[in-house]
Design brief:
- 43% of the residues lie in helices and 18% in strands.
- The chain is built from 12 helices and 12 strands.
- The strands form 2 sheets. The chain has a 6-stranded parallel sheet, with helices on both faces. Strands 7-6-8-9-10-12 form a 6-stranded mixed sheet, with helices on both faces.
- The longest helix is centred in the middle third of the chain and has 17 residues, at 170-186.
- The radius of gyration is 21 Å and the shape is elongated.
Length: 342
């Protein structure tokens, strides 16, 4: 099962064709000025999920003749991420593609960036009350819904399950809430017996699943909205005899190995490449609003006419059958680049 971006991609293709068609009569506007730079900013910067996002963010930048940079903090700490966001902002980049760890703490930094003239687009997680111009992500509700159906069907619609979560992170909350809501609405014989905050920590996840399994001997499945927790959860499940199905979102090399080995049930994985590529495109558009002259009140109101409220980058379902297509090292070797080091 796959979900794909369509409308926005088609619009981008049309724009490219039109630009090519007028190349002889006018200078191509789809290029960066010398020194024009776009930055990607994340938390837990060593997490493999970000790498393919930046790879395509970087490629889009190169195609436009722009400079790009990968920034962030290695910690799961919103204050430290904001500090790296501010450091990037101090260099006055044209735009920043940011994954805000928490929504509200990023309102002021994002608004300050917009006031400075730096375009800001959020991805994978949002800060909806900020002045960010656009938001790109996969459909987190659809991800949680699909994961719930997959687990429930594998358990014949009956049994006990639990969830691990990272409270306060927008996209993770949506996945977990959608998972639980789907179970309650469609699978009434599936019983939620526990919730625990793992906060992307494999050790916390390991301990949580051990405790949940001890308290609920019939526990049959556990869902978490990211990959790091799944490593600990799967280890605990394995030690308990392997009867607990581990379902998650996102992948990394370790997760893929465990899926292939049957230690993890499966994963819903956002289309990271589209997230990065279209994330750059949204940023570039937001920085160059003069390219269009729409019939609306943008000029009167001061609204950026290049705003695109939401873009769905799609997601894939990763199982043992297709896991080989999602290894970062194989992908990087095929592309022949230096990844986040460029």
């Amino acid at each position: 099962m796959r979900r794909f971006l369509s409308t926005f991609a088609a619009a981008a293709a049309v724009s490219t064709i039109l630009a090519a068609g007028h190349a002889q009569s006018a200078e191509n506007p789809f290029k960066c000025a010398p020194g024009e730079k776009y930055v990607m900013n994340v938390m837990v910067s060593g997490v493999e999920y970000w790498f393919p996002v930046y790879e395509m963010f970087k490629q889009a930048g190169q195609q436009f003749g722009c400079e790009t940079a990968y920034t962030g903090t290695p910690e799961y700490d919103v204050n430290k991420q904001i500090a790296t966001f501010d450091q990037a902002l101090a260099q006055k980049p044209a735009g920043i593609l940011v994954h805000p760890m928490n929504s509200d703490p990023f309102i002021e930094p994002i608004d300050r960036a917009i006031e400075q003239g730096t375009a800001v687009v959020t991805f994978a997680a949002d800060s909806p009350n900020s002045k960010r111009v656009s938001y790109i992500t996969s459909d987190n509700v659809a991800e949680g819904t699909y994961a719930a159906d997959a687990v429930a069907k594998a358990m014949d619609g009956k049994g006990e399950y639990a969830v691990l979560e990272n409270p306060g992170q927008d996209n993770h909350d949506k996945r977990v809430n959608a998972f639980v809501a789907r179970m309650q609405a469609k699978w009434p014989d599936m019983k939620l017996v526990g919730r625990a905050a793992s906060n992307q920590d494999p050790t916390k996840a390991y301990q949580a699943v051990l405790s949940l399994a001890q308290a609920h001997p019939d526990l049959g499945a556990v869902f978490m909205p990211e990959a790091n927790s799944a490593i600990g959860a799967a280890q605990a499940a394995k030690e308990g005899g392997g009867k607990i199905k581990v379902m998650l979102a996102d992948v990394n090399a370790k997760i893929l190995d465990m899926i292939k080995a049957g230690e993890i049930f499966g994963s819903v994985n956002p289309n990271q490449g589209m997230q990065g590529y279209m994330g750059f495109m949204l940023l570039w558009m937001a920085k160059h609003p003069g390219l269009i002259d729409p019939m609306n009140d943008a000029k009167r109101s001061g609204f950026n006419p290049m705003s695109v409220p939401f873009v769905d980058n799609g997601f894939s379902i990763v199982t043992a059958d297709n896991a080989d297509d999602f290894y970062w090292d194989k992908y990087l070797k095929r592309r022949g680049t230096k990844g986040i080091e460029e």
